[in-house]
User: Which sequence fits this backbone?
């Protein structure tokens, strides 16, 4: 009895006398530290295993549906045939919503129409400029950048989802489903101008749709009409700030003398190599027309003669 009482009253190393030892007391400090680290590592391993299991479940063959993807990622993955077919189906579905208009004011348009180009063909006439500034606007309410919404729960052969399923391969349609909104109502919202641009086979390989639109790269409307789906008015920019600068641009400038366009200058944001490419890629929200009078032309001629 005395020996048992003595052992009870004699504390182990690191234990406070007078109370039972807590977990970890009586062990060397290094042992306690290792024990704590092991517990943390076990927790991390457990969390990783849980995460990996969830990810595997989301991408499992049981569901047959891949992990969620972005709309831009889906569009960039399409073949050339699928991209052009998707644009055709979208335009057919929205046919009654697409209207032709101009990026120019009525005053500028009337000013351009009667103008002629130089006889040698080095400048365009006014009708060419009027045509360049024609837009194809998708009119959808409450949509700054109109989106074609495809309901995955749609029924019937004439439903949008049925038409999309018909033109896409099984793999592409699976990615299409993965780009839908979360929740009970599964809807894929396709920006109309992205679908239109992606169908331009001449630029898909060299300037694909930016995956970080708005944060990094951007798909810019040279006409400054956000609802426009005319491919000629769509241009990928590497920085979104360039898109904002375009909105404030005054556009290309034309020098006119006696009803003839004698000089054409692209805007500062134009991209391309040839003069034709630079003019077509200029900001088309407006066109500056500067008319040269006989008096000012004579003064310029005199000045040039002295140089």
Assistant:
């Amino acid at each position: 009895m005395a020996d048992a009482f003595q052992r009870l009253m004699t504390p182990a190393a690191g234990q406070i006398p007078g109370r039972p030892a807590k977990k970890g007391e009586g062990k060397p400090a290094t042992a306690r530290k290792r024990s704590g680290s092991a517990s943390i590592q076990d927790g991390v391993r457990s969390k990783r295993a849980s995460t990996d299991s969830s990810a595997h479940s989301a991408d499992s063959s049981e569901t047959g549906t891949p992990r969620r993807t972005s709309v831009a990622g889906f569009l960039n993955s399409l073949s050339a045939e699928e991209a052009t077919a998707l644009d055709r189906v979208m335009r057919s579905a929205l046919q009654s919503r697409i209207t032709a208009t101009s990026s120019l004011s009525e005053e500028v348009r009337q000013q351009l129409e009667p103008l002629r180009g130089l006889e040698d063909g080095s400048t365009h006439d006014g009708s060419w400029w009027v045509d360049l500034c024609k837009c194809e606007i998708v009119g959808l309410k409450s949509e700054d950048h109109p989106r074609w919404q495809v309901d995955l729960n749609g029924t019937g052969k004439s439903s949008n989802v049925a038409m999309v399923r018909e033109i896409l391969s099984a793999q592409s349609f699976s990615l299409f489903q993965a780009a839908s909104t979360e929740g009970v109502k599964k809807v894929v919202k396709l920006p109309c101008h992205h679908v239109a641009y992606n169908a331009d086979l001449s630029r898909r390989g060299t300037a694909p749709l930016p995956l970080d639109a708005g944060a990094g790269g951007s798909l810019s409307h040279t006409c400054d009409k956000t609802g426009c789906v005319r491919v000629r008015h769509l241009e990928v920019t590497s920085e979104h700030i360039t898109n904002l600068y375009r909105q404030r641009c005054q556009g290309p400038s034309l020098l006119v003398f006696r009803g003839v366009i004698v000089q054409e200058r692209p805007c500062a944001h134009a991209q391309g190599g040839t003069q034709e490419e630079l003019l077509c890629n200029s900001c088309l929200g407006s066109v500056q027309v500067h008319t040269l009078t006989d008096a000012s032309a004579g003064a310029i001629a005199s000045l040039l003669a002295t140089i």
